[in-house]
Amino acid sequence: MILKNLREEVLEANLELVRRGLVLYTFGNASGISREEGLVAIKPSGVPYETMKPEDLVVVDLEGKIVEGSLRPSSDLPTHLILYRAFAGLGGVAHTHSSAATAWAQAQKEIPCFGTTHADYFRGPVPITKPLTPAEIRSDYEANTGHAIVRRFKKLDPLHVPAVLVAGHAPFCWGKSPSEAAHIALILEEIASMAFQTITANPNAQALSKHLHEKHFLRKHGSNAYYGQEK
């Protein structure tokens, strides 16, 4: 079995989505990439999480050709591959239909940064894509979903804004590893829920000041970051 460690890490990321209540039944998927090999491991389509094993994961190249695995890969594979090809820093991608984040996607609204919890992870609002055209939906839907995400990030750093809401659909999250992508998926769900509660408590709530937003993001992610312990 090739890329045994990557398969195991991707399986663990998928199971983490289940443990954290971010997916129901066979909804959602996580993947990971070996940049050295140019290969991606992803959850198989429609397989229950509780029965999934590392050998069930499907390994494909960056064009989607199956290299190893007897099952069909996730139907969202083309989206994952486009993100890996477009964003060189990505090591893992997670896609869920978690309720709070998906509600914002369905409302076709970006998630404003109302507080420092959001600012710790996202250098700006959580963006939303433009809706796909009827032609994009009819042909190569999953690939066009990926292209819509890439277009939205034309002026954004995907490692500073590690998630996106796909209009009318749901979130895609990512990180430097599959486990980090799953972690961001959980953080996004919490941020989405808090943002909704914020505007429920105060419909006129204002976004966090740029100064405080930048302070919280950069103290964790900047060149002079000082949050946590030295690595």
- State the end-to-end distance: 32 Å
The value of Rg in angstroms is 17 Å
Average residue-wise pLDDT: 95
Helix/strand-derived category reads alpha+beta
CATH topology: L-fuculose-1-phosphate Aldolase
Q: What low-confidence regions span 5 or more consecutive residues with pLDDT below 50? A: none
Strand order of the largest sheet: 4-3-2-1-5-7-6
Strand tally: 7
The CATH class is identified as Alpha Beta
In one word, what is the shape?
A: globular
CATH superfamily: Class II aldolase/adducin N-terminal domain
| H/E series | HEEEEHEHHHHEEHH
Beta-strand proportion: 5-15%
* Proportion of helical residues: 25-40%
CATH architecture call: 3-Layer(aba) Sandwich
Total helical elements: 8
Strand and helix layout:
Blueprint: H1 4-19, E1 29-34, E2 39-42, E3 58-61, E4 66-68, H2 77-86, E5 92-95, H3 99-107, H4 116-119, H5 134-138, H6 141-152, E6 163-165, E7 171-175, H7 178-201, H8 210-221
Antiparallel strand pairs: 1-2, 1-5, 2-3, 3-4, 5-7, 6-7
Verbal overview:
By secondary structure, the protein is of the alpha+beta class. The chain has one domain (4-221): Class II aldolase/adducin N-terminal domain (L-fuculose-1-phosphate Aldolase, 3-Layer(aba) Sandwich). Helix content is 40%, strand content 13%. Strands 4-3-2-1-5-7-6 form a seven-stranded antiparallel beta sheet, with helices on both faces. Helix 3 (99-107) crosses helix 7. The chain is globular. The model has no long low-confidence stretch (mean pLDDT 95).
